[in-house]
Amino acid sequence: MSTQGDDYDKLTKEERAVRDAADRAREKAEQDALPYKWSQVLTDADVIVPVPAGTRGRDLAVVLQKRKLSVGLKGKEPILTGELFADIKMEDSTWTLEDNKEVQIHLEKVNKQQWWPHILTHHPKIDTTKIEPENSKLSDLDGETRGMVEKMMFDNQQKQMGKPTSDEMKKMETLRKFQDAHPELDFSNAKIT
To answer: pTM for this one?
Structure first.
């Protein structure tokens, strides 16, 4: 969900750059204010929750469920708790206490073709249309898979902006070429499916 509004398409390239920079700065401030750091690739998300130095595993209260995450110290208010943006694979999701000072949580996504705008549904969102391919480790994928993922990202972005997907653009281009080759045919009432 973009916060840019309907006028974004009318802006000049420079105005878009200024708007994007302001959006990124606001987004970064919102994310930095969270009691955890997180990152993601299409297949999974990782969350790092700082805890007091010297914390031991038995001091922690961690709940990891299909659609819920809660992390805290036993007997105290959770550091974070809430509904996950989407379902996770329980059997492949884990948490560990690292250096007695941070809880590292690995969330394996059920839907491996979706960027998460946030970890917990009540926290601020990031603009998933602005995720850069290098953040997703696309470079680690083989050529065919990378092409498929980049196409999915492009199509998702186009749909969010109400524009045609790559397949729709290809059909329109094929039809245009056919029309150019056959000017005697009338396509004015043709429906493209």
So the answer is: 0.64
